[in-house]
Amino acid sequence: MCRRAAAGDLEARLPAIGDSPAAIEARSAVNALLDVTDAFVRESGAALSAAAEGRFHRRFLTRGMLGSFRHAASTIGAANDAMQASAVRVAESDRARLALADQLESAVLTVSEQVATAATEMGASANGLSDFAREAVAGAERGLTTVGSLRTASDQIRNAVDLINQVASQTRLLALNATIEAARAGEAGRGFSVVAGEVKVLANETSESSDEIIGQVATVQSAAADAIEVLESVTESIREMSRLVTGIAAAVDGSHDSGNAGLSQLAEVLRGEVSRFVTTVRAS
């Protein structure tokens, strides 16, 4: 019977080995040992199997257990309690992990939607600014052309006035000669002298008017030069602004030439990556 029990057959029991009190006592003691051992093995196996399946309510029944059997049963019960506490902590950790994954997914989706919306608005604004900058550059260039034409026209006016001054100078000289000749002619040249004097006065007035025109032309040329300088500076500033706005639009919408993704595309990539990460976290 002991060899059968050592081989794992705990259901075997010792039959009657005699009618003497010693034989009856020996049979009872051996079978009692087999009963307790069999009960311990069954209860410990059932409790541990239930714990492995997460059914921690299945307790090790210690009724009838004494000595080392009872101590071992208490140890298994304590281990069962510790496993249950660990399982509770693991479950709480899983719930916290899933809650964190949900929060992360929600936050990233919200951010990505806001980024996509902002990118769309920024792209529209940048494109509008770019169009405005191009129109402003075109307008400034037309202004430069107009002011340049004004400067050219003022140069032509100055040349014409110079020619008038030359004519006036020649006229004064002729009037002086005519006056001298009229004086030599005496009474006969008096009328001619009057005409020569009027011609001289007209020439002087023409010269004075020409000087005023030259002054005004000089003022116009100076203003035109200042206007050209200002327009050139403004035009260059607008061109620089146009380049910056174009760069912003490329950053927002993405550049097809360089292959760089825009904000909307990056937001979509971020959303996809986080979705894959959250799916992995939930599945693990």
UniProtKB/TrEMBL annotation:
Annotated ranges, domain Methyl-accepting transducer: 72-284
Which residues, if any, are the signal sequence? none
Q: Which GO terms describe its biological process?
A: signal transduction
Keyword line: Transducer
GO CC terms: membrane
Instruction: Output the InterPro entries linked to this UniProt entry.
Output: MCPsignal_dom
The molecule here is called Methyl-accepting transducer domain-containing protein
Organism, per UniProt?
Spirilliplanes yamanashiensis
